[in-house]
Amino acid sequence: MANPRTTELDMKVHSYNKEAWNKQVETGNRWTQPVSPETIAKARQGEFSIVLTENIPVPKHWFPTLAGADVLCLASGGGQQGPILAAAGARVTVFDNSPSQLKQDRFVAEREGLTLKTIEGDAADLSPLEAESFDMIFNPCSTVFMEDVRAVWRECHRVLRPGGILMTGSMNPVHYIFDLFKMDEGILEVAHAIPYSDLTSLPKEDLDEQLEKGLPIEFGHSLTDLLGGQLDAGFVITDLYEDYMLESPLHNYHPSFIATRAIKR
Q1: What is the rounded CA–CA span in Å between residue 122 and residue 14?
Q2: What's the mean per-residue pLDDT of the chain?
Q3: What dihedral do alpha carbons 221, 155, 104, 52 form, nearest 10°?
Q4: Distance (Å, whole) CA 189 – CA 177
Q5: Do 123 and 95 touch, CB atoms closer than 8 A?
Q6: How many CA atoms lie within 13 A of 21 on its CB side?
Q7: Which residues of the chain have pLDDT under 70?
Q8: DSSP secondary structure of 197-223
């Protein structure tokens, strides 16, 4: 059953971004490429490295014991994190908006003989999942494609068991204050307020260009919603680190990513 709080705009964004990420799979986006057999073999030996952001691996001490743990890879399709965690011993469910991304996870699972469950859906509405059914949620940098990030945190809290761990990667709001088209040209020009939305912050001609290219719609959330929203949902943030988007000129001055580890009280 759909979440009654879901608005018509949310549904349109959800549908559009589904197709946009299906297209990203077709064009070979970095985050849609299945991991190699060698990577899975190492994970079976407990040797693995996965990211919440772009470059820095998640510290090993952030993870609970994975053997037998129920892990939700949230908005984490693409045949990467889910299969690796399954190979490391976890019971993994991959929940993602894009059927093509989920197909990549099933591809790796079948190729490697891994047990892995996939569910298509909206991260702000985890109603297909039972309350308190997971020990850990792994959510790489994907909340930028979701308008209501606080709804995501509430749903994460609901499906985690007490003491469960939420790991998430987020875009630092500072990334979105700049004209993103000029940033691609190496120019940093402040142009937008936070919170940011492609739908309302971009000039019409820039938004039309983005939609014509089929690029996913993005949202730049405030720190109040990214961090304070986790606290309000009932989490305690136990650690964080920042990461850089190396292809952006901003990396010379400020990190573009924040990764957090939080525990359900």
Answers
A1: 7
A2: 95
A3: 50
A4: 8
A5: yes
A6: 26
A7: 1-10
A8: EHHHHS-HHHHHHHHHHTPPP-EE--H
